[in-house]
Specification:
With 242 residues, the protein is α/β, with parallel strands linked by helices. It has a single domain, classed as 3-Layer(aba) Sandwich (Rossmann fold), CATH 3.40.50.150. The protein has nine helices and eight strands. Strands 1, 2, 3, 4, 5, 6, 7 and 8 form an eight-stranded mixed beta sheet that branches. α3 crosses α4 and α7 packs parallel to α8. The chain is globular.
């Protein structure tokens, strides 16, 4: 297929329980090619080698299915906060077209890139929006709205929870993609989880299929409404974590 070797990619996805059609594989290749092209003129990713993108962006994004194996069973709503070049939201949408996805990023040129990808891949029920989480989480059409909020952003968990939990409906989940060593970070974030209406659930730590890359998925269940004063105004969650 276009000269790319996808055997390992398909094998690794199979280990996650994902089987792709030829159209879905084409969508991933289109995504990779647009990413590579646009990365020459804007900073989207430091990872550009084909098999590294497959492993460290695509497979990593899809590792969410280890925590949420039922993503294909309903038209769940999902918001990806600080999506950057579209990870994990776009790979999840390609594999689970039933998902209703919102991609939120604070940089307008990245949002333009995301819209280009959405159009090129002919994806439906996925929207890229330009703005800060602190502002969008106060909008009635976004607050308490989503089944899942996900983020691969590098902010600490206390800050991320203030950005993300307000988006989640009662009973829904905020899931943070983290590296292996998060014990201290998670411990320090438990006060924030509780304050924001969340309750930490059991982490899932593993090596990505076919690699030595460690990943931990940390789920926080929304148990109660987030107090209206959160998130605080732009900049404070990062400057003064809860």
């Amino acid at each position: 297929m276009r000269g790319y070797d996808l055997e390992q990619f398909e094998r690794n996805l199979g280990l996650l329980g994902c089987t792709l059609s030829s159209r879905q594989l084409d969508q991933f290749l289109d995504y990779y090619e647009i990413l590579l092209e646009r990365n020459q003129v804007m900073n989207l990713t430091a990872i550009t080698e084909f098999h590294e993108v497959l492993e460290k962006h695509f497979v990593d994004s899809l590792s969410l299915v280890k925590l949420l194996p039922d993503l294909s069973l309903s038209d769940f709503s999902l918001i990806d906060v600080g999506t950057g070049a579209g990870f994990p939201g776009i790979p999840l949408k390609i594999v689970f077209p039933n998902l209703r996805v919102t991609l939120l990023d604070s940089l307008n040129k990245r949002v333009k890139f995301l819209n280009e990808v959405i159009e090129k891949l002919s994806l439906k029920d996925i929207y890229a929006v330009h703005g800060r989480a602190e502002d969008f989480a106060r909008k009635s059409e976004y607050r308490d709205h989503f089944d899942f909020c996900v983020s691969r952003a590098v902010s600490n968990l206390s800050t991320l929870s203030e950005y993300c939990l307000p988006f989640v409906k009662i009973g829904g989940l905020f899931v943070s993609y983290k590296s292996e060593r998060i014990q201290e970070e998670a411990k320090n974030a438990r006060y924030a989880f509780q304050l924001l209406g969340g309750e930490e659930e059991e982490w899932l730590s593993f090596l990505l299929p076919g690699s030595e890359m460690s990943r931990t998925l940390l789920p926080v269940r929304k148990k109660a409404p987030t107090p209206k004063k959160y998130p605080r105004k732009a900049g404070l969650p990062a400057k003064e974590p809860l």
